[in-house]
Amino acid sequence: MLPTIDIHCPHCGANGQVMAPPSGSVLIGSCPACDGMLAVFCGATLPLDRAILQTGAPEARFDHLMAVLGEHLEATVDQIVAQMVASGDMLGLDASQDDADLDADDGDEADELVDLGPITPAEVQRFLKDELPRIDDRNYFQALFS
Ligand SMILES: [Zn+2]
């Protein structure tokens, strides 16, 4: 039994389940109840504009996805920072210390993530065209993740 996640359509309020997408991925699809487009990202179900994603220029599609995903990411990062400040014990620092001290302790892992750069429109197109239709293809999935 594959793991699933619960989703809640932000367009019409319908509830459903989808196969849990690989960690860090963006799953794009349609609500079966209202046909509104959705993005499942970091455990959230976010509303997408079908007109932009189906007929917009690549730049418009990119900007729309970045706005929707970025907004969610900002809210998530806000929460993380608020928790760090509230707990006061993250890295043994208090909230008044500046970012330079935090950066010094980041290490290689964080740097690798930063070096990946933004998702390009070409990558979004490739994902929509080549990878999304195969999301339920067991062999393809295993080729990527086994
Ligand atoms: Zn819906």
Written account of the structure:
With 146 residues, this protein is α+β, with helices and mostly antiparallel strands. It is globular. The protein contains six helices and five strands; from the N terminus they run βββββαααααα. The strands form two sheets. The chain has a three-stranded antiparallel sheet. The longest helix is centred in the middle third of the chain and has 30 residues, at 58-87. It has one domain. The chain binds zinc ion (ZN). Zinc ion (ZN) binds at residues 9, 11-12, 14, 31, 33-34, 36.
Structural key phrases:
146 residues, alpha+beta, three-stranded antiparallel sheet, two-stranded antiparallel ribbon, 6 helices, 17% strand, binds zinc ion
Quick take:
The chain is α+β, with helices and mostly antiparallel strands. Helices cover 48% and strands 17% of the residues. The chain has helices at residues 50-55, 58-87, 99-104, 107-115, 121-131, 138-145, and strands spanning 4-8, 15-19, 26-30, 37-41, 44-48.
